């Protein structure tokens, strides 16, 4: 059922349309003037509007302009007994969905309404998708360091200035690039990403500038490069420090001249592209070693943004965890578990060499493998490992001051995992471990192993 607004200064037309649409099961509100319509819309926006063109006071076209200014997503169908091509064109220019002439045909009205509601559904789906994408690429945190990053993003985004984003792997450099694009005048144009480290050096020029058929083995057809595909949008050169020197020279020329030439081609093609680059390398050192062009560095480094490592903004970890839990529950169907204060404190204390990416993977592992309704400190101790993700081999365990303490911690983690695997059935766990049940009880008492919840 949809909520429809009928706006017409003829009571008979309002009555006919109201009866028709209510019979179809829709909720109908009526207004007899443009002024009344605008007041009604502000109080309770409908799903669609049928708006007469000729009315006293504010006419239909003026009302349409006001509606679209205040509620650009509202679908408006114009109706008129004095329809002309000029009026229809003007109504369409001002954003009308359709233009119907009186006397109104019932079938045409119903078909138009169906099309309006389908369009509205599509618009809501697109908006939902945009919201989902924005959430997936959201920069989460309130620390001073991340607020500094967001402030610089806000300042540079509306310009066409080139940006060089630096930071360790996993800090979220791509998120910063996407945030700049979303807030720029190019937001509706493409955002094209190139991972310069993932493309073989012999193919990077083809990837960036395109190629012509037959220009090299495997070039079976003409293909535009990422500069062309990003025309009017944003080109994100990730890990730009890994780009070959020959490709760097061509990128420099493209930035200086605003043109590209495909590999094996002669035609010079103009491109309008904003370039954002990112790297985890110290480019000044790469320049000294002769691996990166100094002139390209200055072209890219118009506005520098440094993304801090997670260990320098530990106060953001609880919000990041909450964000990941919410996202994974909604998108991946993982259980929405709370984290105990002790578990959260332990996560905040870790160094996170893999930064936000490592934290995300850890949260996912804890949601999947933790056995209780909450993620507890024991879960973090057991499941948060080092680079290899080994169960129980977390930093605290590996920092044990003596072999005896290491052995005790490892034994506790092992027994806890086995008890969980067998739903705390001590007899079954002892049988699997080939251990007398009395010994298992003693170890459980020694290590204070108790069923959670």
Strand order of the largest sheet: 2-1-3-4-5
| Biggest sheet architecture | 5 strands, parallel
The residue fraction in helices comes out at 40-55%
Taken from the alpha-carbon principal axes, the silhouette is flat
CATH architecture of the largest domain: 3-Layer(aba) Sandwich
Distance between the termini: 46 Å
Number of strands: 16
- Uncertain runs are 386-395
Whole-number total of structural domains = 3
Fold and architecture overview:
Helix 2 (34-43) packs parallel to helix 3, helix 13 (317-332) packs across helix 15 and helix 14 (341-349) runs parallel beside helix 16. The protein has helices at 11-23, 34-43, 60-70, 85-93, 106-136, 144-156, 173-182, 201-209, 226-229, 245-257, 283-288, 294-300, 317-332, 341-349, 355-369, 377-383, 395-398, 403-421, 426-433, 437-446, and strands spanning 3-7, 27-31, 48-52, 75-80, 98-101, 163-166, 191-195, 210-211, 223-224, 234-238, 259-261, 268-270, 274-279, 303-306, 338-339, 374-375. Helix 4 (85-93) links the parallel strand 4 and strand 5. It starts with a strand and ends in a 7-residue tail after the last helix. With 453 residues, the chain is of the alpha/beta class. It folds into 3 domains: 3-133, Rossmann fold; 144-308, P-loop containing nucleotide triphosphate hydrolases (Rossmann fold, 3-Layer(aba) Sandwich); 312-446, Helicase, Ruva Protein, domain 3 (Orthogonal Bundle). The strands form 5 sheets. A 5-stranded parallel β-sheet has the order 2-1-3-4-5, sandwiched between helices. It has a 5-stranded parallel β-sheet with strand order 7-10-13-6-14. A two-stranded antiparallel sheet has the order 8-9. The longest helix is centred in the N-terminal third of the chain and has 31 residues, at 106-136.
């Amino acid at each position: 059922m949809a909520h429809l607004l009928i706006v017409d200064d003829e009571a008979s037309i309002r009555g006919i349309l109201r009866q028709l649409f209510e019979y179809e099961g829709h909720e109908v509100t009526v207004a007899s003037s443009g002024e009344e319509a605008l007041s009604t819309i502000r109080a309770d926006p409908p799903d669609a509007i049928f708006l007469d063109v000729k009315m006293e006071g504010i006419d239909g076209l003026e009302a349409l302009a006001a509606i679209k200014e205040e509620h650009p997503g509202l679908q408006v169908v114009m109706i008129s007994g004095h329809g002309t091509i000029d009026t229809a064109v003007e109504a369409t220019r001002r954003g009308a969905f359709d233009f119907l002439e009186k006397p109104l045909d019932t079938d045409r009205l119903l078909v138009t309404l169906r099309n309006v509601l389908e369009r509205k559904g599509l618009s809501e789906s697109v908006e939902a998708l945009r919201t989902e994408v924005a959430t997936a690429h959201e920069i989460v945190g309130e620390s001073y360091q991340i607020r500094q990053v967001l402030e610089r993003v806000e300042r540079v985004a509306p310009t066409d200035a080139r940006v060089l984003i630096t930071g360790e792997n996993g800090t979220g450099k791509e998120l910063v690039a996407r945030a700049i694009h979303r807030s720029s005048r190019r937001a509706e144009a493409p955002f094209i990403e190139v991972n310069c480290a993932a493309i073989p050096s012999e193919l990077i020029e083809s990837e960036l500038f395109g190629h012509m058929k037959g220009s090299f083995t495997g070039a079976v057809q003409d293909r535009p490069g990422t500069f062309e595909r990003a025309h009017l949008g944003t080109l994100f050169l990730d890990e730009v420090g890994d780009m070959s020197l020959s490709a760097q020279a061509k990128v420099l020329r493209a930035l200086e001249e605003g043109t590209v030439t495909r590999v094996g081609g002669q035609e010079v093609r103009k491109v309008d592209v904003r370039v954002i680059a990112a790297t985890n390398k110290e480019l000044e050192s790469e320049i000294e070693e002769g691996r990166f062009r100094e002139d390209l560095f200055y072209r890219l480094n118009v506005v520098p943004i440094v993304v801090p490592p997670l260990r320098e903004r530990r106060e953001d970890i609880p919000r990041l965890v909450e964000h990941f839990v919410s996202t994974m529950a909604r998108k991946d169907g993982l259980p929405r578990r709370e984290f105990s204060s002790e578990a959260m404190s332990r996560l905040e204390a870790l160094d996170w060499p893999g930064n936000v990416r490592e934290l995300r993977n850890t949260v996912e592992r804890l949601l999947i493998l933790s056995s209780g309704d909450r993620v507890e400190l024991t879960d973090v101790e057991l499941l948060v490992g080092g680079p290899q993700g080994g169960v129980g081999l977390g930093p605290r365990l590996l920092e044990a001051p003596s072999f005896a303490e290491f052995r005790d911690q490892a034994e506790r983690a092992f027994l806890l995992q086995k008890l969980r695997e067998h739903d705390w059935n001590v007899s079954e766990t002892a049988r699997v471990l080939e251990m007398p049940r009395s010994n298992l009880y003693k170890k459980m008492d020694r290590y204070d192993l108790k069923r959670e919840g």
